[in-house]
């Protein structure tokens, strides 16, 4: 009897132990810090995001990161053991083999830096901080706060020093530099080619090694500094500026390394806490790791006294913080709309900075005198319209001539460009409505409506044998199937062109059933939302959930390939090989897509302050808003199997719409989404649909 009782107790304990192990750990932002959940190594291996673990600060042009051999776009490969040194800027997640990599520095042992190898034995990193240890006993810690940062080194006894290459940049992008040595300090400026090598940017810097050692020229933009043989520690201070080397010197921190590291972590935690999630801890780790990626660029280019340089290189001054470093062609769809909600003070400066591009001669790609690294700015006009309708001040009258000049120069040579250009024509028409210029509003509305001619010519007939072929008919990155949906400004007109709602739905169904959708790139990123303009909005709820959190089949890739070993699995994973093969994060665009979807709403059409609803990926999320307001989003019947919306309540009242507006978000309150495992096929919600006429 005694044996049986003990056995029963053991079985009960075992069952409890198994149960406790199978239950997910629950995370709540009220009793834990989001900054502690961020995995900065996400997407840092191979071509699976093009991200790096560099020490960074929200929207700072300075990011201090390791340079490995071999490397990826950001100079780093997670699996690499051999390190070449450290660099001080990079554009996260963009294509064209990446850019940045200025001010290369290598710690070395002995007298010859080329003979001193850095082989990784361990590393760790978190927002604002990176550290690594090498086989030769050199230990390195990096921290960044605002536009300045610190290196902290531990060395073994013996001969040692630092090797500095001011002519280094990723992909041979270095153009020229000028520097001045003042004992242990080096300061000056560097000009490099921007992302994709289209334009040039100029940055100023100041770099100082603590102690009495002196930098010495070794030719060809290279310098050496030997440390005392008995020294076991060394520290480097560095700061960047778009204004001057003197401004960079003033930005150098007087704080200790630990103080810089701790303050950076505190500031990152404040930024990440703009959204509080409660739920499965592993899901929260993925969420905050991606939210972190949405805050890398654009870069602050103004100093504390308000000075900055515009894209002409001219020195200006303004009270509002200015930004540069744009990837608008990619992230206007998701990242910028996200910042318009969660970082409204900073976003006001970004909007002003985008408008200012038109005052200094905006180009689609970079100019020759950029104040920071940058990529592309197509659809900036759409972003400005979107910002204005969200309540941000935009002086359209001041830049109207420049907006019109840009739109008049748009390209219609290929089918995709014709649809893209029509989007900007629509935006200009809406802006002229704001300016009460009915004549020009009508002119550009009719110009936008010409998309129908292009659509009928190339996108209507899906029987041709090239409609699922990448780059057919001169398309840039995509297929006829993928680009045919790019009419976000006139879904009503698109449905009519496609033969009515039933035909439109049949084509949408075929698109997804044949796995023609491409999440590795942006051209069809809005398509999962496009059931929302019909009576079958539940299919959008299904696909948003599927793409964000479940298994998908992916046949298309960002290198314009198709079908060579289809990907089957989850797109978003919290690991170094995070994304689909060839999928770039594109300066936070893809990360922001996930953050929106996980939150339960996504932009319906940039240019209108409207967001379509879906079931969130957490039981509860809270958005921190201006004036102390919050929007709490609760999911009733939460379960990852419950993908469909049964009902919605806003502040306790039935909310019979399939969308929410920016005004409603900013008003705050509590939105409750009741989830269901089965679709609600007879929904009576008010459905928002874009339309030109």
TrEMBL record:
Organism this protein belongs to: Pedobacter endophyticus
SUPFAM superfamilies associated with the record: Six-hairpin glycosidases (SSF48208)
Lineage of the species this protein comes from: Bacteria, Pseudomonadati, Bacteroidota, Sphingobacteriia, Sphingobacteriales
UniProt domain Glycosyl hydrolase family 92 N-terminal: residue ranges: 37-208
Protein name: Glycoside hydrolase family 92 protein
Entry's Gene Ontology cellular component terms: cytosol
GO biological process, one term: carbohydrate metabolic process
Residue ranges annotated for the Glycosyl hydrolase family domain, each copy included: 251-674
Nuclease listed as a keyword: no
Subunit record text: Monomer.
